[in-house]
Amino acid sequence: MDGSCLCRGIKLRIDAKPEALHVCHCIDCRQFTGAIAAFLLPVPRDKMTVTGYPSGYANTSDGGVTVKRFFCGNCGSSLYDVGGQEPNMYYVQAGLFPPRTLPAPGKEIFLRSAEAWTIRYPGCKVSQTEVKQLVDP
Questions:
Q1: pTM exceeding the 0.85 threshold for the entire prediction
Q2: Fewest CB atoms within 10 Å of the CB: 68, 71, 87, 94?
Q3: What is the DSSP letter of 35?
Q4: Domain range annotation of the chain
Q5: HSE-up of residue 37 (Cα within 13 Å, Cβ side)
Q6: Residue ranges of the CENP-V/GFA domain (predicted)?
Q7: Helix/strand/coil (H/E/C) assignment for every residue in 89-117
Q8: What is the distance between the alpha carbons of residues 59 and 34, in angstroms, rounded to a whole number?
Q9: What is the pLDDT along the chain (137 residues), one digit of tens a residue?
């Protein structure tokens, strides 16, 4: 799968198509993306190539987890996150890839921060907080 930021200055190539999207409603993801949820592709770090020079910003969540979030310094597109509970994974913004190339959501997390009017994605494991507390709907 090939994707890029808006200005195409940073390109991403994923060598193995992810099985499912993660939908995250946490406040940090909301602020990073400017949307009410982040749609993230979990990708092992050895399965993705980044071309270009992303900028990064690290912050520590309310739960004490540090995540570094990368973005394009030119156009501002949100790109991917690293760190947190799975430091060997990239969590890549799904909107960087062409339409109809993405898998369906499989996990939905931080529902406690979701807007009351949003619908749940069918078949997702869900959690009010973080990934390690997932349950079937």
A1: yes
A2: 87
A3: S
A4: 2-133
A5: 24
A6: 1-118
A7: EEEEEHHHCCCCCCCCEEEEECHHHCCCC
A8: 16
A9: 999 999 999 999 999 888 999 999 999 999 999 999 999 999 999 999 999 999 999 998 766 788 999 999 999 999 999 987 788 999 999 999 999 999 999 999 999 999 999 999 999 999 887 655 545 54
Whose CA is closest to 17, among 41, 49, 52? 41
Please give the helix or strand (H or E) that residue 59 lies within, else none.
strand 55-60
Bridge-based pairing state of the strands 105-109 and 89-93? unpaired
Which amino acid does the sequence have at 87?
A: P
Give CA 125 to chain center in angstroms.
16
Fold of 2-133: glutathione-dependent formaldehyde- activating enzyme (gfa) (3.90.1590)
- Angle at CA 82, nearest 5°, toward 6 and 15? 65
Distance CA 135, CA 128 (A): 9
Q: At which residue do the structure tokens 């009351």 appear? A: 116
> Taking a C-beta distance cutoff of 8 angstroms, is the pair 37, 21 a contact?
no
In angstroms, the CA 91 to CA 78 distance is 11
